[in-house]
Amino acid sequence: MEFIFENPWLLFIVIGIITSIFNKLTGNQGKQKSRPQRQPIQPQKGANHSTSSPIREVKKNEALPAIPKKVINNIEKEYAERKKQAEETLHSLKDKQRALENKTQSLLAVSERGSMRLDFNSEKDEKPSFLIEKQKLAEGVVWAEILGPPRALNPHKSIRQKR
Q1: What is the pLDDT along the chain (163 residues), one digit of tens a residue?
Q2: Domain boundaries, the chain
């Protein structure tokens, strides 16, 4: 008996067996009791609910009511309108796509022409000219400091000597 209480896994197994036995005994008694049956919900005749449809249980012997032609016509009209709108948006999107493709092709052609012009100019000017301006040089040094590694990781040497 002490062995069962010392081993928690065995204790869980014993408890599970006992509860399953009691559930089987009480399950047979629960099946004998009859449950009350629900009445199906019927919609009110005066209220029109366009978004929600009434819930009905269809029996095998019961025939489905005929759908009025007005309802069918309304559904077909709405379907045709939505289909037409979808086709219009599709056509407009295709037109936009074609326009963008034409624009990208023209930009590529212009850039290729521009690069060709640069090639022709480079053939004429074989000597590169490096004109350095003081302002551009100062901006380059500033940007090198900004984009370089942080100074905390690499402090100035003069600061180390003072310490």
Answers
A1: 677 678 888 888 989 999 999 888 887 665 555 555 666 666 565 555 555 555 555 555 555 567 888 888 999 999 999 999 999 999 999 999 999 999 999 998 888 777 655 555 555 555 556 778 889 999 999 999 888 888 777 777 776 565 5
A2: 69-124
